Amino acid sequence: MRRRKQSEVPAPLARLGQRFVTWRKTRSPGARIPTSLWNSAVKMAAKYGVSPTARVLRLDYYSLKKRVDESSCSVPTSTFVELPSAALSVSSECVIEWEDATGARMRVYVKGQNVPDLLALSRSFWDAD
């Protein structure tokens, strides 16, 4: 794996760095960094790492890290997958597993023609305290 030289800065990160330079030149003293710039910095940190992003954008590492951590908590990581009942009846055996952000799991083994009410099972799992 090729290591990136410290002088090599990815083009999108360099462009964002220029936006920060422009903002710093035109801002009034004591002005806070606009939300749009912070959001862009968080996206770059997720892609290129917190430390390189903070260094290029001249941001406080811990402030950027905190925002990255907050943004990753608020983004849902699971997606909904609809399973039509016809697809389940064709298979003779399958396993369906749910897992939430706290690590709680529910696994359902489906074998043969008897398909449980998966909608009711999933609702009971996601609505549980």
Describe, in plain words, how this protein is organized in 3D.
This protein has 129 residues and is mainly alpha-helical. It folds into two domains: 11-74, no CATH class; 85-126, no CATH class. It contains six helices and two strands. The protein has helices at 11-26, 35-48, 50-57, 61-74, 85-90, 118-126, and strands at residues 93-99, 105-111. The mean pLDDT is 82.
Describe the structure concisely.
The chain has 129 residues and is mainly alpha-helical.
State the oligomer.
single chain
Number of helices: 6
Helix content: 40-55%
Order of helix and strand elements from N to C terminus: HHHHHEEH
Ends apart, CA distance between termini: 46 Å
Q: How many β-strand runs?
A: 2
Radius of gyration: 23 Å
Mean pLDDT: 82
Largest sheet, if any? 2 strands, antiparallel
Identify the strand order in the major beta sheet: 1-2
Keywords:
2 domains, 129 residues, 6 helices, 2 strands, mainly alpha, single chain, two-stranded antiparallel sheet
